[in-house]
């Protein structure tokens, strides 16, 4: 009896140990192909994103002019930016004004075009492609140059306005109108959010509109009570994307102002001023500090949007909404 009682645990251990090991081995064998296929992305994320971000964070605490070795200065770049640089705050104000004007205008045009295309029968694919094309072309330098020529002194837009009795002169050289040249170019590129809005509109059940019509709701009431709530997740998605992109606007402002932010810093957007301090003035440490403050600001605003979305974004599959 003693021999049997001492042998039993040993045999139990021998029969139980290999099972979890073989299961772990099988899981590893199933997972390694995924890591192989993910490895290009993982390597790219580390080499092209995480490492440059770490270097940029280090440079933001240094005095670096691209030619000499970086010199550690601590928080001097940040304190100078926030307390001693009036052009920095003007660039912040210009960028905020641009975001407040351009984002709602672009989303409004996108939603309006999507609602028109939703009820369009023949030719919807053609018009959808035509409206989407500016989103592919608008970010190029050549389109920005053409846009600048349209609004410059002697351009097409001032001539058209003169013909109807509105004398504005060239918008590019007018401090009160120069920023709206960039806003117009941004709003013209409403194709990408339009496609997303169109997909969201097609997911709304027609039964909801029929029920609203039976209750006596007209088209305007149906839009407010049915379309907007059911489309609110798509509106929120487009709002976050467009807000982040608008804070990073660069090419139109660079072309319209010839890279200077003129006239009177009216087109001196945040990223343009960052470029000027980093590559024109060779204050790369200062520019790195500006980039990190922009990242923090965009992150905070995005967090606020997510927090406030609980009060106005409606998800049909969530209880209690």
Automatic annotation (TrEMBL):
UniProt-annotated location(s): Cell membrane
Location of the region described as Disordered in the Swiss-Prot/TrEMBL record: 1-27
GO biological process entries: transmembrane transport
TM region positions: 34-59, 96-117, 129-150, 177-201, 222-241, 284-306
Domain ABC transmembrane type-1: 92-305
Coiled coil ranges: none
InterPro entries: ABC_transporter_permease, MetI-like, MetI-like_sf
KW Chaperone (keyword) present: no
GO cellular component: plasma membrane
Top-rank lineage group of the source organism: Bacteria
Keywords: Cell membrane, Membrane, Transmembrane, Transmembrane helix, Transport
Membrane topology field: Multi-pass membrane protein
Family to which this protein belongs: Belongs to the binding-protein-dependent transport system permease family.
Protein name: Sugar ABC transporter permease
Source organism of the structure: Streptomyces tabacisoli
